[in-house]
Amino acid sequence: MGRVAIVSLMVILAAVISSITSYQVKPANYAKLIEKQKKFDEAFEKEFYVEHTKYVETGEQSERLQEMFEHIRQKPDMFRMEMDNHPLPYLTAECTACRALVTTYLTYRRVLGWDRDRIALQAASTCETLNILTPPNCLKIVNKNIDILLYIIDNRPSLTAQTICGIIFQSGTCVLEDPAFLNWSINVQSGGRPITASKTSPNRGASDLKIIHITDVHYDPHYRTGYNAVCGEPCCCREGQGIPANPADGAGEWGDYRDCDSPWKAVEDAVRAAARQHPDAAYIYYTGDIIDHGVWETTVAGNIVSMTRTYQLFRDVFGSKPVYNVLGNHENNPTNVFAPSYITQSEFSAKWLYDFSADQWSTWLPTASQQTIRQGGFYTVLVRPGFRIIGMNNNDAYTFNWWILYDPAYLQAQLQWVHDTLLQAEAAGEKVHILAHIPIGAGTSYRTWARQYRRILDRFWDVITAHFHGHTHADEFNVFYSLANPQHAISAGFNGGGTVPFSNYNPNYVVYYVNPQTYDVTDFESWYFSLTEANQNPNRNPIWMQLYSFSRDFQLSNVSPASLDGLVRRFASNPAELRRYWEFKVKRGDPFIAAGCDGDCLLNHLCQIVTNEANDDTKCNALAAIFRNLDDELFNEEK
């Protein structure tokens, strides 16, 4: 993942990283390390501005500036990882880069009066210097985002580098301090059942409903079998990247582990396999990200073609069965940016996407849902008496949505609507499933937004029976704990993984068993195929297999928040069981298995399950205390 000048820094950072989410456990001396890092960052920031200004004036990079660029240069594996999964040394270098570069370019814009084109060319040059993309593609991605960023910067003169970097990173020396970004809230009505214990739910039964969860197909219309899978850019296997000299570096027939999205035949095979294997499924959930990772060259017209083709596939394959969709962060153009509804300029607004989605989803949703979809890409639907779905567009709270920097409080509106919808559901005696692309509470979920959502969940913990996520491409779950009573587990989030292998995964989908009276998830299972085996047999369809049946494989009576909380504590004292969970989470992707996962790695994945809000380490610290006391040589003490 690149860290480049105010435009390319923020754009590349957000747009081209992949999405595996984990968690970085902080060392015991973390506070001292941060104080030391703050002093380093302040000195680096000042020196970088001086050296970069000299470079701009002379056209020559000093030896010192070259050293500073080298310090902030991307690491080879950064593109593959969501920010949460970056080791602490990566995060500190990224934060240093963010502060130095954003401060420098804010000065160029606000003090020296640089115009749009000058900033764009310089940002693209820095992108090239840091080997983020090819020179033409650097300029493409900068030009796709620069007008939005400059509009925000020019209209928010009090916006500082500390706030910008604090929103993006939410950790280390890049922490959010601006009260305007920390102190907004929604109105939560009093009432509801008091939380006195962790939430339980029924065991799996013969009459349970089946729900298929598909997510993150990332269809790439430019994917070509045999083309370069080690192209050196954030997304490979594409026709414009040529055929490699070494055939082993060519893209596989059914996809590729190496930073590549999915060819259409793989998308279609996954959807048809799910329908064929589970003809008794009642509903289908799709939690976003149809569009590919070639973010430097996506277009509105191209996105519409890819989405239209995918939604039509759902209609063709599932017929009359309802498919409930939510938007992913890649669906808009540019990627990640979802402006407030009052921003009406066509070049900034996501209205095209909301109108398109309302039209496409009308196959499965009632007319009453149209208003909120066209307003902001979210909706609610009564699926059957007593059972309601809320489809959120929580991409607005993704920390790479630049519009948070413009007006963080605009996020209140959708959250307040969620609260009010839940209040009505409670009065009607309904239970609710929440669908959202970004895992709620993940490290790239804006912290203030996550805190307000936790207030909603505390109030409606007995109305919301489950959450369903995508985005990370990992087959994982998380446990939500009460904000007011953190010893109690009150909800769970289930991630569908993804049919895309980007990066190092095997494709999968998930099937849930849901109690037809309480609408609790009672069990779930994952289905996958080996990408290695499929590509070795390119002339036949992949062989889909069950990866796990969760209750069976972890010996649980059910998958209630209480049971999952108990399982997490078991993981903390049983590394072998935790390692098994990790193998399921990465879907036995061959590169992951070959690389392994040591004690620190396992602990990070364990903590990810229980972290509900950025920088809330309470649950993680308790589990780490148990895990690190194990006498099993799990940890590399030299780290």
UniProtKB/TrEMBL annotation:
**Residues annotated as domain Saposin B-type:** 91-178
Q: Which residues bind Zn(2+) 2?
A: D289, N329, H437, H471
Q: Name one GO cellular component term.
A: lysosome
Q: Which GO terms describe its biological process?
A: ceramide biosynthetic process; sphingomyelin catabolic process
What detail does the entry give on cofactor binding? Answer: Binds 2 Zn(2+) ions per subunit.
Segment forming the signal sequence = 1-22
Q: Where in the cell is it found?
A: Secreted
Quick check: keyword Hydrolase in the entry? yes
Keyword terms of this UniProt record: Disulfide bond, Glycoprotein, Glycosidase, Hydrolase, Metal-binding, Secreted, Signal, Zinc
Relate the protein's function as given in its record.
Converts sphingomyelin to ceramide.
Q: Which InterPro entries match?
A: ASM_C (IPR045473), ASMase/PPN1_MPP (IPR041805), Calcineurin-like_PHP (IPR004843), Metallo-depent_PP-like (IPR029052), SaposinB_dom (IPR008139), Sphingomy_PDE (IPR011160)
Gene3D superfamilies, sorted:
3.60.21.10
For this chain, the annotated S-S bridges are C95-C174, C127-C138, C231-C236, C237-C260, C597-C601
- Name the family the entry cites: Belongs to the acid sphingomyelinase family.
Q: What is this protein called?
A: Sphingomyelin phosphodiesterase
In the UniProt record, does the keyword Metal-binding occur?
A: yes
For this UniProt entry, the molecular function terms from Gene Ontology, in alphabetical order, are: acid sphingomyelin phosphodiesterase activity; hydrolase activity, acting on glycosyl bonds; metal ion binding
| Catalytic reaction equation(s) | a sphingomyelin + H2O = phosphocholine + an N-acylsphing-4-enine + H(+)
What cofactor does this chain's UniProt record say it requires?
Zn(2+)
Task: Cite the EC number.
Answer: 3.1.4.12
Domain of life of the native organism: Eukaryota
SUPFAM superfamilies linked: Metallo-dependent phosphatases (SSF56300)
The record lists Zn(2+) 1 as bound by D216, H218, D289, H473
